[in-house]
User: Fold these one by one.
Assistant:
Number 1:
Amino acid sequence: MDYETVIGLEIHVQLLTQSKMFCGCSTRFGAPPNTQTCPVCLGLPGALPVINRRAVELGLRAALVLHCTVHPTSQFHRKNYYYPDLPKNYQISQYQYLEHPPLATDGYLEIEVDGQRRRVGIRRVHLEEDTGKLVHPEEGNVSWVDYNRSGVPLMEIVTYPDLRSPQEARAFLLKLRQVLQYAEVSTGRMEEGTLRCDANVSLRRPGEPLGVRTEVKNMNSIRSVERALAYEVARQRELLERGEAVVQETRHWDERRGVTFASRSKEEAEDYRYFPEPDLVPVEVTPEWLEEVRRGVPELPDARRDRIMAQYALGRYDAELLVQTRATADFFEAAVAAHPSPKAIANWMLGEVSAYLNEHNLEIEQLRITPAQLAELVRLVEDGTISGRIAKDVIAEMLQTGDSPRSIVDRQGLVQISDEAALRETVEAVIQDNPGPVRDVLAGKEKAVAFLVGQVMRRTQGRANPALVQRLLRERLGLLGG
Ligand code: ADP
Ligand code: MG
Ligand code: ZN
């Protein structure tokens, strides 16, 4: 029997708050080092923390979205360890300790892989604070520390060991990021560190107890998590097949070399000496507060997909693609608000726009064009100003330059030719030059009509109004009413 892969994830998410977890300092990213600090987040003696209500609300939101049980009281704890990025020498976190549960436990998130839907269990959701950041410059025998990040609100989400492949781990992270973005809990960008993931993985024979696991760290994209896990699965399999044991350890992912390696182990029985934080009252969540939070949760992806299908008469497939990220759905709805042609707008977005984003490895937020400009392009086609053929050139130019479709059309003289007299001349010339196809048309071969229309389009560089060309051709060949 083959081995079964077992994966559990620990995910840290930076919460979308203006201020830190236990003080009023700003969480704004990119400020000069140590300019967003105060006695609390610097851990100066005598400074007292106060819980950020908004951070708790965002944690509750996440707990609800993940179908967790929210505990009426939870308690912060001190996790003690010594490291220079941790000025208090302890991190305020939540912990399962005697009768004190974390903020929320036992939920799930549904994923779909290869058409199969599966529920992945969530063991816990808890709140904690981030540490500062150490910088080790190449020059000089020094290290720097920046405490701007110290005390920034984090949420930790821990899954049960329910994932069965690196692909499922990837699907889980994509789905988690999507719902957290929709719920406005976090920006969820691994590249920027607002979502970080440690992956635990082991192998076993199906039906046997869990095998010895390794924990892989240092992945900076969802794709890297999948790759790191695939590497680790292969490595463990090889060990087991040689009759060797997997060592429980933390391993680091090397993105460039595509391998994991054992890091100096500060391993095993690490004793954090957890104890309740005496400077903070317990977090009390009343049913009323929880209900208020529930009402404030923005529309989630599945609900938005269903609404978009109903409201704009789109198919499930298109709607699913449009809600993939919140920014995409927002772009679509803004464009439709500017010009009510949902089907055409969806087609452009899922066709040319999405191909452009893929090709240039961009996110929709980085597009040069606005929803209003896409709407304008659709209007120009619909009112006959440009042909559908020309519109493809125009959108390519729009995506490149960010110019409005109107200005591109004017600048390049792309306005559709709807002038009957001018088109009649071209139709006449095409008929003279193509006696064969003309005979076919007269013999009743419909396909030949399309060929002749194509010839007219070609001679006008795609600018002729195709419907008008059809009519003129049919009139001239005595086929009216066809
Ligand atoms: P720790 O207390 O060391 O962080 P936990 O028991 O909290 O360990 O588990 C951490 C993560 O590891 C969870 O996501 C859990 O599902 C996962 N996990 C635990 N045991 C295994 C295992 N044998 N194989 C794979 N994942 C595991
Ligand atoms: Mg852990
Ligand atoms: Zn502060």
Number 2:
Amino acid sequence: MSEIENLCDVIIFGGHGDLAFRKLMPALYHLFNDGYLNHQSRIISTTRSSMSLDEHSELVKIKLQEFLAEDVFDEVKFQNFKVHLIVVQLDLGDETSYGTLKKVLDEFPDRERINYLSTSPSFFGTVCKALNTTKLITKSSRVVLEKPIGRDLASSRVINVEVLKYFKESQVYRIDHYLGKDTVQNIMALRFSNRFFMPLWDASNIDHVQITVSESVGVEGRWGYYDDYGAMRDMIQNHLMQLLCLVAMEPPCSLDADSVRDEKVKVLRSLRHMSVSDIEQKTVRAQYAKGSSNGVAVPGYREGDGMAESTTETYAAIRVDIDNWRWNGVPFYLRSGKRLRNRNSEIIIQFKSVPYSIFANKGRCISDNKLVISLQPKESIQLKLMNKIPGLSEQMRLQQVDLELNAPMNEPRKPEAYERLMLDVIRSNPTLFMRLDEVEAAWKWADIIISGWKENIVSMKSYSAGTDGPTAAVELVARDGRSWHE
Ligand code: BG6
């Protein structure tokens, strides 16, 4: 086991929640087994109900077996991992119940503490305040906040102001797990380590950009949360915005956290805020109706318990304009939804046509170049180019070929986003986390659309579960003479 990585206590508030079991524990299990977690570190889960350590360990084991990729769970490795688990009963909202946690943490008062708030955002301020009252915040403590931070600018400010009463901005790690995906990080490598892309990456050469995150799953039992947020707050304001920033940002002067985040925030501040007619023309919101998913009939969104009146969108498509020199006139089309035909996330950089085709008038057409960055279901990068079909035919014939830009995998397994991010928190590297000004700039842009939707400036559309989404999204890009990459 590694002695190099920082020695720390990781405290998971909401330790028996879905995120903790689905993502955080598997990430810590891998980090531990791959030698990235110091062998004296402890993983302290807080839970509302009382539970013995044995019961907790058994539950963690069952959940790891469920959520780790097939064949990865190993009993011997688990036995070693289990030694680091601790469970503490705690009521997040009751300061008097933090005593047991204090006792556990005070065994090693100098140890770095990572407070992972895997809770609803409404508890972020409460937990930080209680940690302060109980004197559990040290100079080297960090706090990790899950997105979304608030439901709009005003509520995100309330949360951030509360958290920042007790932690410095440099101690706050606002997670957007999309930034932990390897291919997402590769966008920077691709753009800033290849001369080839440098002169092409602007409005003179790029026609438009598409960012799609489509999910085939529905709300998966998270109705309470999801109905309050919807696709715009759950996905577009954070995950898709972060992807847009990485594609659109200027080269940072270095890879240090603030240089990267300074460039991203410039992009967010350059987003064109929408007028009423922009909201009408450039946004689509929709809810899924009953249909089928992988051949199985599924109910519509409003057929969930108590959902008949819901006006929450499960799909959003938006044309985004960036008002700066590099991107003037280049639309970024974003779309994301649940219960769609496929699970598919990708970024398409669509280049402009060649200035004049010497082939076209002979009935042969040229497909414009595209860079396709796929995040899901498979991570890959392809450059679509035109090429001659080999042979002796009299007339030169063309075909589109894919240049695969995938790095060979030397590792036995690709790390999950949460592994990368958890390790970065352990290493105190905030580059892949959202700074306060980024969150606020993204909300400022999103709030205008959300309020327009609330006033019904665009009507809610519908799409059947298991399809490609509402036709209005097709019309959105068709109005500009374009189509979605399928
Ligand atoms: C989460 C959203 O942040 O991202 C979920 O809250 C969504 O609604 C999930 O399903 C998608 O993440 P991924 O990595 O599976 O694309």
